[in-house]
Amino acid sequence: MIASSKASKTPAWPRVLACLLLGLTLAELVLGMFVYRSHVDDDDWDAVRERVEAAAAEGPVLLATSWLSPSARMQLRPMRAWSSIAPPDLRTFSRFFVVGLNEAWSAELEHDREDVRPAELVASERLGALTLHTYEQPMASHLVASLLEPTNELRVGDDHGPCKNSGDTWTCKAGRVQLRAVEIDYRPRRCLAVTADDGTVIRIVRDDVELGNVLRGHVGFDDFNQRLRSDAPVEVSVAVDGTIVGRWLVSDVQGWWPFAVATPAGRHELTITMLVSVRGTWQTRGYQPNSAHEPCIEVRAVQEPS
């Protein structure tokens, strides 16, 4: 009798709560299967492939639906180009194309637009489950030259003298410069990554490069885990024919940081100087000099409309 009395007085809310939690879990599982199920099959990629390859002859092809990226790179050859995978920004694209599932634009594209006026959506073409959107920028800048192409015209040196070049890598006595695709602020970027000893100055020179009216570029820091620690900044300066025209101090918290400076048009000597104040990172066991905190830079000469 006593045991029966105690059992009858046991509150029911724990069982009710357990049932509610189980129901919520099942609902989330079903909803997740619905939301993340595959929306795109081989027929859809076949439907868009020929049109995308034709569009690539007119401008870069970008992606609006970010979670489709692995499949899109595998299925669509034009989306393996650096202009699609890791564009520095959108300002030099007079015409470009965006592939999306239900989206015509994305937060990533909006970030890469920077201070340029919004592009004009001039056409949208449904191809299977995907849509190809065509954008135009009447006021796009003209790309005159890039410091990344061709790399064999670059001279790199440090405080000890010239660095030895082997393809896309320059080996210096106090560090290294390498053309790489890196992760900056959760995004792939293609730039010249600099690894150098504390207090080392790295100089990147193009002796006779065609310039437009503006020199534009970006600086960021490679490696998400190291960037979390917000380590030492890098000093970047730009000189034209030996005269400094711009100098900035850039830290990792600034992400993919853009810079711009006016330049005289025509052929000139361009020098990019990077002062790496501190190479290493600070961790729980103190300063680690060999855990490199690498700045990465891209620079382009552009002719901007007045």
Topology:
Blueprint lengths: L1 H7 L4 H23 L6 H14 L5 E3 L5 H7 L6 H4 L9 E6 L6 H7 L6 E8 L2 E7 L5 E5 L7 E5 L2 E2 L1 E3 L2 E4 L2 E10 L2 E10 L3 E12 L2 E8 L2 H4 L6 E7 L2 E8 L6 E6 L3 E11 L4 E3 L2 E3 L6 E9 L3
Parallel strand pairs: 1-2
Antiparallel strand pairs: 2-4, 3-4, 5-20, 6-7, 6-12, 8-9, 9-10, 10-11, 11-20, 12-17, 13-16, 13-20, 14-15, 14-17, 18-19
What does this structure look like?
By secondary structure, the chain is of the alpha+beta class. It folds into two domains: 42-140, no CATH class; 143-303, Jelly Rolls (Sandwich). It is built from seven helices and 20 strands. The strands form four sheets. Strands 5, 8, 9, 10, 11, 13, 16 and 20 form an eight-stranded antiparallel sheet that branches. The chain has a six-stranded antiparallel sheet with strand order 7-6-12-17-14-15, with no helix packed on it.
Q: What labels would you give this structure?
A:
306 residues; alpha+beta; Jelly Rolls; 8-stranded antiparallel sheet; 6-stranded antiparallel sheet; 7 helices; 22% helix; globular
The main pleated sheet reads as:
8 strands, antiparallel
The secondary structure category is alpha+beta
Question: What is the CATH topology of the largest domain?
Answer: Jelly Rolls
Query: How much of the residues is beta strand, in percent?
Result: 35-45%
From N to C, what is the helix and strand string? Answer: HHHEHHEHEEEEEEEEEEEHEEEEEEE
How many domains? 2
What is the CATH C level class of the largest domain, in words? Mainly Beta
Relative helix content:
10-25%
User: Overall pLDDT, averaged?
Assistant: 88
> CA-to-CA gap between the ends?
94 Å
Poorly predicted runs are 1-8, 29-37
So, CATH architecture of the largest domain? Sandwich
Oligomer: single chain
Estimated radius of gyration? 26 Å
- Please report the total strand number as a whole number: 20
Number of helices: 7
Which shape, going by the Cα principal axes?
globular
